[in-house]
Every structure is written in structure tokens, then in C-alpha cells.
Inverse folding.
């Protein structure tokens, strides 16, 4: 009898696991609350346990030869000179933009606030592209917030506990973000494919896209702020249009959570904001 | 021959030493879970991280089946699913099947050398990777052949790193045995 029970246990447990998965799929289980409860407890532990590893990886990054430093310095000087010019331009455009806004009586976008934090866990590995952050509703981080690293959008908050938040990265299979191509204003959906590149979907026919065009959030659906840069088109072919994210998503260590309530900004009069029908699909 | 890698069957002994072994195993598993979820940023290691949990389950199923009962494996798998944002039950199911399948082949592998143990892991890891990919893709009804690449890289990574991970695993086995 005992051996029979021992033999049956794994089979029963596998069945139980399958049942749990079916219930999860049917949304019959409060999986999100269970996750938030566990990650809220685990995040401080992970932060503590991971600190020696953090020191180790940081020191790896810190090792650089004098030669490399010189080369980098040269490169930075050149870049700085270029950026100085851009800075002057930006100031001019800002003033110009301001005066146009005043002329058109546009309600200004609310100033975005953000929290900067370190990524404590990157648990999904080969399947799920998500990261855990040690900030939560206590830090005014909430579900739907956009998350950026230095250069661009990397994902958005899908679960927020008191002290932890899970970010679904733009590369995940379930990530679908409403975007605009910056110079043509063509709208599309940017979908994650579990690879380094993202794919533009639901493009209008003959959209005339070319390699090098920048892709930014459109803000449609009201979940993400508009005009946050995400990536650059790197491939236009028979398989579709592919976008390379601006941030090196696999190497991010610090991120910023943009935690302002998104307001489309357009105000006065009869102007209604068009909402994209297939705005953002989220699991 | 069954002692080839310090293997032993079952555990007896007093309740106190049993609790001690239980606590040691729990700590070891927490370390494995942290290793499996820590954001390594050395090159692309974060993306192609090996499955530490799978290596441990496989190793224990052969060397010391008593280390982790199926129920404990199930609990570990569910914790991993919740932490990692997986469909609930995916890792629990995979780890249980790996454990069950490996235990059935235990006698065969034990009689052979390390190479067979290693090849066995390569097979198990490939099987588990493809299985998880298929279940995950059907769960989200989204099959992307391109997304197999990181899965296969992880399988290779798991196989390559296994000989290194065997050292702490076998040291852990010895210290468990000493407490018996």
C-alpha cells in the first residue's frame, strides 16, 4: 500500500500542477495577489542576499585598462562637443515650442515624476522577460507605470505590492505597446518576441518605413505617457519590420519608474482624443 | 558501485538530525532559487542562465533520492513559478517529471561513470527546456520559433556548467550523509 502511495504521489502532484495552470489560465485563481504577497516578502531577502553578487558584478564592470579609459575619454569628448550643439538647439526649440503652445492654448502635460531603483531580480530566464524592483505602492509606484532605463522604455509595471513591483519587459511575448514612428507619425503595435528585437504589428499598408527611424510610445490607451523613446527600426523585410530597443535590456541594472498619472494633455474645446481600438493588450 | 559519487539510499536517524538535514536542504534550495533569479549582468548571462534548480533535482534524484520528496519538489516549483512570473504550475510540473523520470533511470546511471551522468543531464535539460517552451507557448497561445533560441542556449549553458555545480552538490551530499 505504502509503495503504491509513493508511486502515485508524483502523478497526483503533476495532475495538481496541471489543474493549477488551467485555473490560472481561466483567471480562477488570485495568482497576481499570491505573487505580490510572495515577492513583497522575498524582495528584501533577495536584496540582502544579492549584495555580494552586486559587488562582484560591479567590480567586473569597473575593471578597465588605462588604454580603454583613454579611448573612452576621447570618444566622450567628441560626443560632448556634439551634444553641446544639440543642447543649444534644444534650448531654442524649447522656447519656440513654448511660444507655440501658448498660441494654441495647449494644456501642459503634467510634469512626470520618477523613482530610480536597482533591479533586484531577473527571474524568468529564457521564457518570461520580467524583472523585480524593490519599490512598490509605498513609493507611489503602481500597476501600469512606464519603466525606463537611461535611453528608453524597457517595460511597464504589471504587478505592484507594497514594497515590490514586477516589470514586464518590452521583449516579453505578452508585451504589446501602442507606438508611433517618430517622423511619419504612423501608428502601430510594438510586440515582444522573446528575442532581442521587437516586431511592429498592425502597420497600415505601404507605411514606407525605413531603417533608422525612431519608434516612440503613442500614449494611446492612456497607459503609458506619449513620446517615450523605445527603439530604432533595424530591419524592414518580408518577415516584417523589426525594432532594436535603445536600452540594452539584458544588461540593465538601474531603472526609473515614471509614476505620474498619465494625462493625454490635450485640453480645451471640442478636441476629442482618439483612442486606438487595439490599444494595449495585457495578460 | 552504487557509492560511485557518494550515493546513498534513504535516510534514517533521530528526529533531531532529520530536522538538521531538513533545515540544511531548505537553505540550500533558497540559495539555488536566489541564484536562479539574480540579475547577472556579465555579458548575456542574465538571458542564458543555466537551470540550477534542474541540475540539483536531477543530481539528487540519482545520488540521494531522499533529499527532496515529490511534495517538497512541488512546493519548490510553485514558489519558483510565483517568483518568476511563470504560469502557475509550470516549474512544479517540469521538476516533478524530471525527478520522476530520472529516478526511474537511477539504477542505470549509477552504475556508469561521470560522462553518463553528464550526458543524462544534457538529455534531461533539453527535454525539460522543450517541454517548458511548448507548455508556455500554448499557455499564451503564441508560438514563436525565434523564442526557442534562448531556451536552447540555456540548455547548452546548463550542460556546460554542470561539472562545476556537481562539486557543491556532492559536498552538500557528504555533509548530509555525515549527519546521518
Amino acid at each position: 500500500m505504502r509503495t503504491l502511495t509513493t508511486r502515485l504521489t508524483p502523478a497526483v502532484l503533476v495532475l495538481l500542477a496541471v489543474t493549477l495552470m488551467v485555473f490560472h489560465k481561466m483567471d480562477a485563481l488570485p495568482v497576481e495577489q499570491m505573487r505580490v504577497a510572495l515577492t513583497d516578502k522575498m524582495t528584501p531577502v533577495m536584496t540582502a542576499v544579492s549584495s555580494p553578487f552586486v559587488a562582484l558584478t560591479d567590480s567586473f564592470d569597473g575593471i578597465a585598462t588605462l588604454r580603454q579609459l583613454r579611448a573612452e575619454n576621447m570618444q566622450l569628448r567628441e560626443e560632448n562637443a556634439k551634444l553641446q550643439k544639440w543642447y543649444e538647439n534644444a534650448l531654442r526649440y524649447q522656447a519656440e515650442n513654448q511660444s507655440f503652445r501658448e498660441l494654441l492654448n495647449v494644456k501642459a502635460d503634467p510634469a512626470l515624476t520618477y523613482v530610480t531603483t536597482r533591479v533586484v531580480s531577473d527571474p524568468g530566464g529564457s521564457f518570461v522577460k520580467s524583472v523585480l524592483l524593490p519599490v512598490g505602492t509605498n513609493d507611489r509606484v503602481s500597476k501600469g507605470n512606464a519603466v525606463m532605463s537611461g535611453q528608453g522604455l524597457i517595460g511597464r509595471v504589471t504587478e505592484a505590492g507594497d514594497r515590490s513591483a514586477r516589470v514586464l519587459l518590452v521583449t516579453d511575448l505578452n508585451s504589446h505597446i501602442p507606438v508611433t514612428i517618430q517622423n511619419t507619425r504612423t501608428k502601430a503595435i510594438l510586440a515582444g518576441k522573446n528575442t532581442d528585437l521587437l516586431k511592429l504589428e498592425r502597420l497600415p499598408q505601404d507605411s514606407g518605413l525605413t531603417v533608422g527611424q525612431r519608434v516612440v510610445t503613442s500614449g494611446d490607451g492612456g497607459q503609458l505617457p506619449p513620446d517615450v523613446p523605445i527603439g530604432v527600426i533595424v530591419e524592414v523585410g518580408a518577415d516584417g519590420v523589426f525594432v532594436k530597443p535603445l536600452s540594452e535590456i539584458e544588461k540593465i541594472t538601474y531603472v526609473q519608474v515614471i509614476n505620474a498619472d498619465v494625462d493625454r494633455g490635450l485640453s480645451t474645446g471640442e478636441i476629442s482624443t482618439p483612442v486606438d481600438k487595439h490599444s494595449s493588450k495585457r495578460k | 558501485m552504487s557509492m560511485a559519487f557518494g550515493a546513498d539510499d534513504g535516510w534514517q536517524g533521530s528526529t533531531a538530525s532529520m530536522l538538521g538535514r531538513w533545515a540544511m536542504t531548505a537553505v540550500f534550495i533558497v540559495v539555488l532559487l536566489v541564484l536562479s533569479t539574480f540579475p547577472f549582468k556579465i555579458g548575456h548571462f542574465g538571458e542564458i542562465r543555466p537551470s540550477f534548480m534542474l541540475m540539483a533535482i536531477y543530481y539528487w534524484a540519482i545520488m540521494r533520492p531522499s533529499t527532496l520528496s515529490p511534495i517538497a519538489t512541488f512546493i519548490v516549483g510553485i514558489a519558483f513559478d510565483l517568483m518568476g512570473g511563470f504560469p502557475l504550475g509550470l516549474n512544479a510540473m517540469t521538476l516533478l517529471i524530471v525527478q520522476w523520470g530520472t529516478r526511474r533511470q537511477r539504477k542505470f546511471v549509477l552504475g556508469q561513470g561521470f560522462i553518463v551522468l553528464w550526458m543524462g543531464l544534457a538529455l534531461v535539460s533539453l527535454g525539460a527546456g522543450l517541454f517548458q517552451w511548448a507548455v508556455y507557448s500554448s499557455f499564451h497561445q503564441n508560438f514563436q520559433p525565434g523564442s526557442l533560441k534562448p531556451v536552447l542556449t540555456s540548455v547548452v549553458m546548463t550542460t556546460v556548467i554542470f561539472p562545476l555545480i556537481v562539486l557543491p552538490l556532492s559536498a552538500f551530499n557528504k555533509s548530509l550523509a555525515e549527519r546521518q
Summary: Residues 121 and 208 of chain A are 40 Å apart (CA to CA). The longest strand of chain A covers residues 229-237.
